[in-house]
Design a protein that fits this description.
This protein is of the alpha+beta class and 175 residues long. The protein is 22% helix and 34% strand. It has a five-stranded mixed β-barrel.
Length: 175
């Protein structure tokens, strides 16, 4: 059985990273790290629909014990469990239940429509606002509070990926 958490970070990481899709358009699943399978979760609450596909970057570990989240723009709606390559353009800083985290926002590496997006500042303002609102609203419906701390550029996203990869490696070899 494939351990999606141990897949390659990406041959050209952090410029291009591997993304394991968990939540595609209206298809919500969660990767169970213990059994190594994708399980259905509660559907996204209407009118909360992601402006892309959400998943995680393998070989990363955040301070909350979860892999680093990634929102992929410009990709078809794949089935959960699909592996895609993404080009990070920024990171959204959030405070989720008292824990400061970042979510990586990336463009599908193979989508020519987004070839001119190099930084989150190149994206349309309404798209960035939609990302912020969707993440906030989803947590509100769950009875949890999420505070948006702000956007960080592509370089900061790369540093976040490196730091969370180093934490993964350190944690894996300390067990």
């Amino acid at each position: 059985m494939t351990d999606f958490l141990s897949l390659s970070l990406g041959e050209d990481a952090p410029e291009t990273v591997t993304a394991v899709i968990e939540v595609a358009h209206r298809k919500a699943t969660k990767y169970d790290r213990n059994s190594r399978v994708f399980r259905p979760i509660k559907p996204l609450y209407p009118p909360v629909y992601l402006p892309g596909n959400y998943g995680f970057i393998p070989q990363t570990l955040c301070v909350n014990g979860e892999p680093l989240g990634i929102l992929m723009l410009g990709d078809a709606s794949p089935d959960p469990g699909c592996v895609r390559q993404g080009r990070p353009i920024g990171a959204l800083g959030i405070m989720d239940s008292g824990v400061q985290l970042e979510k990586i926002v990336a463009c599908a590496a193979s989508n020519p429509q987004f070839r001119r997006l190099h930084n989150y500042t190149d994206a349309q303002a309404n798209l960035l606002l939609e990302v912020e609102r969707v993440l906030s609203m989803h947590r509100d419906f769950q009875g949890r509070r999420l505070k948006v701390l702000g956007w960080r550029d592509r370089r900061a996203a790369h540093e976040t990926i490196r730091a969370n990869h180093a934490r993964f490696v350190s944690h894996r070899y300390s067990e």
